[in-house]
Backbone:
């Protein structure tokens, strides 16, 4: 998580946000999506969306990019964002800020944030409708030669009280995540779909489910429900519309500035609070990385949620022989356990090491051309995973990083760290080679870097995140 020496982040640029035209001609190259509407006079208008430049819709002309004069419209009715997604595409989302809510594809949405897919219709009740058009579209790879081209129209399936759509938010080796609707609570949710083939696989997945259903913390991605449908397990999760921390950091670097120190500290404070909650329950995550840290909604100083508990383990104080995770975030004891079947490691110190790598901006992965290279590193998963699944470049990179971790050959970018020694001191404590001497989450929360702003961090957390 690269940090800068500034106290505050640079203000956002608004130049291309809310660009309105009579048609889509002339939209600039940085436009990634548009909202198409017909106003009260029958004139077709386009509201353009650019990455990280939100558009506000409402009645107040001083505060809104697109103004609706209808009395039923709130001063600021909703805010529409476009943010980078982890797969290189764009997530378009709408945050309802109104009294009356919004309607998405005929379903009432209130006081939450939703994802707008291509051709979705967003309605301001008793006012105008907007059709969302994505200009940056990720075409899914065909599973076989006879898959339709172009893809079929979205389909829907009722699973329990939820409506699951064919819109895929993410795909992995063992599961896919789809957009779903929870009509009872007027919100969208994420549906993680896992196909199990054998009884022991179902038992293994249910371990993750039991862990998830028992967790309730502002910085943990919440599981609402689970449904079994034949061989398919459906886990209904809290939807996060801001993308993941990895994409957020990369997008900030592409705009020529890093996270400011204050924002990096606020994110790390939340991560440590979430980890403290888990470790108090004797649960370790074992695959902490920016890709598994989600942003609840777009915007600076975001609320973050730890997600993807597929490798999580209860009784985390016990040593395990099942080494897993992503190579560039693994501690030396887990790297050794990967290569020696008789060696084990403890999960909670491993989580702390991973947090140090995140804050330290990959101190063992120097020499790569950019931060984005770490996304190319394969997950080790378990010892049975075939390395041929990864590209040769990724395998070579993993080997180099493994050697550096085992040799404790780390490097800090002096241009970043020279003016924030307390932050570097925390990273160094989290990256102590001997896991028994390594900082715990409790020690990290007591570090000088956190304590120097603890009152401000706690007040900001309580006012923006904590329900209490």
Residues:
């Amino acid at each position: 998580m690269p940090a800068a020496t500034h106290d505050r982040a640079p203000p956002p640029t608004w130049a291309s946000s809310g660009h309105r035209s009579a048609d889509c001609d002339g939209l600039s190259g940085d436009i990634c999506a548009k909202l198409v509407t017909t106003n009260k006079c029958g004139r077709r208008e386009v509201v353009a969306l650019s990455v990280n430049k939100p558009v506000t819709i409402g009645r107040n002309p001083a505060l809104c990019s697109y103004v609706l004069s209808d009395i039923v419209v709130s001063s600021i009715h909703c805010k529409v964002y476009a943010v980078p997604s982890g797969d290189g595409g764009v997530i378009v989302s709408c945050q309802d800020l109104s009294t009356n809510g919004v309607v998405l594809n005929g379903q009432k949405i209130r006081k939450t944030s939703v994802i707008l897919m291509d051709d979705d219709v967003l309605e301001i009740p008793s006012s105008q409708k907007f059709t969302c058009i994505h200009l940056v579209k990720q075409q899914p790879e065909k599973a076989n030669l006879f898959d339709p081209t172009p893809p079929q129209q979205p389909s829907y399936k009722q699973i329990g009280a939820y409506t699951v759509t064919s819109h895929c938010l993410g795909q992995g080796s063992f599961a896919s995540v789809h957009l779903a609707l929870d009509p009872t609570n007027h919100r969208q949710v994420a549906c993680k779909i896992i196909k199990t083939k054998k009884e022991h696989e179902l038992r293994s997945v249910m371990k993750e489910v039991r862990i998830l259903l028992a967790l309730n913390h502002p910085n943990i991605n919440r599981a609402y429900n689970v449904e079994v449908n034949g061989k398919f397990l459906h886990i209904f999760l809290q939807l996060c519309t801001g993308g993941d921390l990895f994409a957020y950091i990369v997008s900030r670097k592409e705009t020529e500035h890093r996270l400011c120190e204050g924002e990096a500290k606020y994110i790390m404070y939340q991560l440590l609070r979430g980890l403290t909650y888990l470790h108090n329950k004797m649960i370790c995550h074992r695959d902490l990385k920016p890709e598994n840290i989600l942003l609840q909604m777009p915007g600076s100083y975001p609320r973050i949620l730890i997600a993807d508990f597929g490798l999580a383990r209860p009784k985390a104080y016990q040593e395990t022989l099942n080494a897993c995770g992503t190579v560039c975030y693994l501690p030396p004891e887990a790297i050794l356990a990967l290569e020696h079947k008789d060696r084990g490691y403890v999960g909670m110190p491993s989580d702390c090491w991973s947090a140090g790598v995140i804050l330290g901006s990959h101190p063992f992965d120097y020499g790569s051309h950019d931060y984005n290279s770490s996304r190319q590193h394969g997950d080790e998963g378990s010892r049975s995973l075939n390395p041929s699944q990864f590209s040769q470049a990724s395998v070579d990179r993993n080997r180099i990083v493994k050697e550096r971790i085992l040799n404790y050959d780390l490097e800090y970018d002096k241009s970043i760290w020279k003016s924030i020694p307390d932050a570097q001191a925390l990273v160094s404590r989290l990256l102590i080679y001997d896991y028994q001497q390594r900082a715990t989450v409790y020690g990290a929360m007591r570090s000088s870097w956190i304590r120097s702003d603890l009152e401000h961090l706690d007040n900001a957390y309580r006012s923006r995140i904590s329900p209490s």
Q: What stands out?
A: Residues 158-238 form a domain with the Phosphorylase Kinase; domain 1 fold (CATH 3.30.200.20). Residues 3-27, 376-389 have pLDDT under 50 and may be disordered. The longest strand covers residues 162-171. Residues 261-280 form the longest helix (20 residues).
